[in-house]
Each structure stands twice: as structure tokens, then as C-alpha cells.
Specification:
Length: 97
């Protein structure tokens, strides 16, 4: 967990949802929209955020528990993968299935 992750979770805890574009204006850290999007995806894969339609993120139950101090960031880590699951082509695409 990084400082920017805490700021993202705190902001989304006070709002119902937001996008990386609006989060770049709301949080107190100078970070680009792309950097915030990357961190939101890491938090989503760890279970701290949920992504609604498009790039709208909201805090999950795990994210709220993290802010309350009941869950450690070390307990919930995203699994490393060469590609995110949504970017992997199905087997039939390459003729394997």
C-alpha cells in the first residue's frame, strides 16, 4: 500500500463513487490521472475497490475494513499475472480450443 492508495480509499469512503479523472483533483497528492487509474486497478484486484460501469470506482467492504484498521494491506494483495484477466484472449482465438 502506498500513500496514494490511502488517499484514494479515504476519498471514495466519503463519496459514493468517482473516476480517476475526478480523483486527480480531489486527493491531496500530486498524481496524474493515469497514475491514479493504475493504483485504482491495483486496489480493485486486491479487493479494496469495485469498478462499476466504465471507470467509476467505489470502495468495497474490504476497503472500508482497511480504513477502519481491521484489515492489513499485507493480507490482501493482488495476484501477479502477466496480463490482467480481462485482457487475455480466449483459447479459441489462437486456435487452442
Amino acid at each position: 500500500m502506498e500513500l496514494i492508495d490511502d488517499r484514494i480509499l479515504e476519498t471514495l469512503n466519503s463519496e459514493s463513487w468517482s473516476t480517476p479523472h475526478f480523483l486527480s483533483f480531489d486527493i491531496d497528492i500530486a498524481a496524474s490521472e493515469n497514475r491514479i487509474y493504475e493504483r485504482c486497478e491495483v486496489l480493485r484486484r486486491a479487493g479494496f475497490l469495485e469498478r462499476e460501469y466504465g471507470n467509476n470506482y467505489e470502495i468495497s467492504t474490504w476497503g472500508a475494513l482497511y480504513l477502519d484498521g481491521e484489515v492489513s494491506g499485507k493480507d490482501r494483495r493482488p495476484l501477479p499475472a502477466p496480463r490482467p484477466p480481462e485482457a487475455v484472449r480466449p483459447g479459441w482465438y489462437a486456435g487452442f480450443g
